[in-house]
Amino acid sequence: MIPGPFQFHRPQSVADAVKLLSTLGDEARPLAGGHSLVPMMKLRLATPEHLIDLHGIGSLKGIRREGDTLVIGAMTTQHELVASPEIAALVPIVKETSLQIADPQVRYRGTLGGNVANGDPGNDMPGLMMALGARYRLEGPDGARDVDAVDFYQGAYFTALEPGELLTEIAIPVPPSGHGYAYEKLKRKIGDYATAAAAVVLTLSAGKVATCRIGLTNLSETPLLAEDAAACVIGTTLDEATLAKAADLARAVMQPAADGRGPAEYRTHVGGIMVMRALKRAAAKAV
């Protein structure tokens, strides 16, 4: 199908983009990789009168370290995350997750900012950002503010972004050296959204779990942080009983929709399995 008519804008700075968003209001949409917005426009499920293309804003791209934080520009593509030596060395779970998003063709255009900003519960990065304790920089007509990933998602496609605001950066605390990590994703086929997925970042001390965070993907109308499940593994060696308990505690917060990927009961069940697999694989990587 063919999208409805729209006017195309290509600002050269964040300030210009924010001004356009503020001036044009609800009829304007920012365009990053376009893999969510453009298909919706083709189906006439989204009919913005104005598209604000962010590709001309150089400051929105790039990866840099600031002390103990890795800062990633919102327009950095999934391919660039996969190819980045900094990502591979400091937060390798980001590379692991990026490689499970769609296919190479999509990853060449799809951006980290677009993946985390639009509030799609099926996107892979939001749950991972929760597990990493990431923060988002939002810039709007009233200036800039930082919002933790855990506070950003309010419902399916509803986020903490205010009118006129743009997500410009993602700041990730660098995990300690020797941490363990894993992103386990069950999908119907290569390139599909997750039926259920879990991200785990943990550390070990004397063979026992010292710290742990667990993020869940596509198991509710928002990404989830499974705090009780993570807390229950602290101080354990991740024996089978502990893994089963963590899975059950994670399932307690899941509220997946029944869809083409299966009934809610099935998706909840396999969600727990993804948590167990991710915990075991993360622990095996930790030193």
UniProtKB/TrEMBL annotation:
InterPro entries given in the database record: CO_DH_flav_C, CO_DH_flav_C_dom_sf, Diverse_Substr_Oxidored, FAD-bd_PCMH, FAD-bd_PCMH-like_sf, FAD-bd_PCMH_sub1, FAD-bd_PCMH_sub2, Mopterin_DH_FAD-bd
Signal peptide annotation: none
Keywords: FAD, Flavoprotein, Oxidoreductase
A Pfam cross-reference name: CO_deh_flav_C
GO molecular function, one term: FAD binding
Gene3D superfamilies: 3.30.465.10, CO dehydrogenase flavoprotein, C-terminal domain, Uridine Diphospho-n-acetylenolpyruvylglucosamine Reductase, domain 2
Residues covered by the FAD-binding PCMH-type domain: 1-177
Xref: PANTHER family: XANTHINE DEHYDROGENASE SUBUNIT C-RELATED (PTHR42659:SF2)
Protein's recorded name: Carbon monoxide dehydrogenase medium subunit
